[in-house]
Specification:
By secondary structure, the protein is an alpha+beta fold. It has 3 helices and 3 strands.
């Protein structure tokens, strides 16, 4: 039974590219060979790309909530902060929006806590 299932999965994986190419040819009217992505984008202008380009959110937002947890007989109070940062190019235009979450323990110096960058 396991060999039959393995053979069926292998056949499906091998047939998938052919089915995909047939669907693309049918959707383009079935005329001519399937074009590669570089061929389809050859006549696209920079203005068309710019118009359809995803835009970064320029508004930076931050929300902080207070929480507590009981661990090993101690109550730890902490703050969770979630927000966004906007990365801008040299002209000041937004190019990316980054999301972050920070957890800080109440009553502890913030200058001594570890920082992780990703």
């Amino acid at each position: 039974m396991r060999r039959l299932l393995t053979a069926a999965c292998a056949a499906a994986l091998l047939a998938a590219p052919a089915v995909s190419m047939a669907q693309e040819a049918a959707s383009s009217g079935g005329s001519g060979p399937v074009r590669s992505a570089s061929e389809r984008l050859r006549n696209v202008t920079a203005d068309q790309i710019e118009k359809n380009w995803a835009r970064a959110v320029a508004d930076e937002a931050e929300v902080t909530t207070s929480h507590s947890v009981n661990a090993h007989g101690r109550t730890l109070r902490y703050k969770a902060t979630a927000g966004t940062l906007t990365v801008r190019n040299d002209a000041g235009m937004p190019t990316a929006s980054l999301f972050y979450v920070a957890y800080t323990l109440d009553g502890q110096p913030v200058g001594r806590r570890p920082i992780t960058y990703m």
